[in-house]
Amino acid sequence: MASTQAMRIAGDRPRRRKHVPGQLIVRLKPAAARQIAATSLQATTSRALMAAMPDEVRGPIDFLRDNLGLQSMKPLFVVDGGETPAQPQAMALAAVHRSIARSATAPPREALAGFQIVQVKDTKVDAGVLKRLRASKAVDLVEPVPNRWLSAAADPMKIRQWGLRAVRWFDRSRPGAGRVHVAVLDSGVDAWHPDLADAIEDYRHDGNGERDFLGHGTHVSGTIAAVVNNSAGIAGVTNCRLHCWKVFDDPKRAGDDENFNFEFYSKALAAALDSNIKVINLSIGGEDHSKAEATIFAELIDAGVVISTAMGNEFEDGNPKEYPAGYPDTIGVGAVDESHRRASFSNTGKHIKLVAPGVNILSTVPRVKASFADHTSYDSWPGTSMATPHVTGAAALVYINKPKSRAAGLAVAKRLIATATKLPAMRGRAFTPEYGAGLLDVAAALGRVKAARKSRRKAARKTAKAKPARKGRK
Description:
Helix 10 crosses helix 11 (about 405-420). Strand 1 and strand 2 form a beta hairpin. The strands form 5 sheets. A 7-stranded parallel sheet has the order 9-10-8-13-14-15-16, sandwiched between helices. A 5-stranded antiparallel sheet has the order 5-4-6-3-7. By secondary structure, the protein is an alpha/beta fold. The chain is about 30% helix and about 20% strand. The protein contains 13 helices and 18 strands.
């Protein structure tokens, strides 16, 4: 997918301007507007028009034209009024007269007479400019045009995202991560999904089609970066820029299992080395250690890349050590359910770093039915794959103001681990093979260190043991 224009970010949403840039509301006193309306009907030449324009009106118009680049004036509250260009020629003055005249005679109520909406080239109109315009005796009001936005429900499915509550995503305002670049190496992505299109910087699927046939990469991407407050679907953990690589080949037949393409996978990892990518999400796993893979991972860590990896879902099938979670300095992520207990499928081991929500995780899926999905557009899945992107998004938030370096990347990982919430099932221990250092805590990782640990312990004790979850997606 071609690069999308990065949004100006404040927190997790596009920065909403208080005023519309380059637009002013100017109201002439109705008596002055009516005077111009009466005289302009009789004036036929440029000189006559100038003579008909009182100095107290002509002064503000000249100021707008000479200092702010006056582009147009239109009468407000006139149902059938059209734009009347105001350029510095003779006919421009006629257009200004016509607009003022219509503002005096065409509004449906007297209280609405004299109002103009003025467009100027200069988008930065300060208080001094407004004061200068208000100084005219003929001017009743000057103000910037106020901005408004739709008050539709923001992310209507967000209430169903228990994982965000579990990691205290709502407990603290989050900084804008629009300059942090995150890579997702997975089955692809629905790059035009309404909750993802504005978050995707680029999408590479060399040798394969762009469709995410499995849906896995789309689900992972949504948990990381689904656009917040866009009146659609869900909310992602952060508003970072996503770089998506499709590292599984397209199925030759419908229903075929995923076919991992190590060549493209290795190229994707190498591409992240000398790039602006700071975090990589790898919701994948396998039992074999690879020296080649270990080598590129060591280089990525040295380059300052934080690598968030899934522990795997084979606990009930022997609980093998899986990779890439088994490589040093990656963040191996296990899964917990709504009761904050280890999901029955989640692998354990000494290499685990922390846990995150990984059961019944609602996220984006392709709009065209994918083989892993029961639904289109949005679906709830289990898996350490679903837990991992919570940590990836949190890493992007913590990495915002730090230049990319080995020390910075390791510090981000250390911060996420150090601020994790100790869970009741850990029985007071700092680390366990089931939970690592504990449950991801976004609020604490961002600086609000006081975690609601006592209340969590009480809540966990009151919560009945969860039913065994179906085996998750890796």
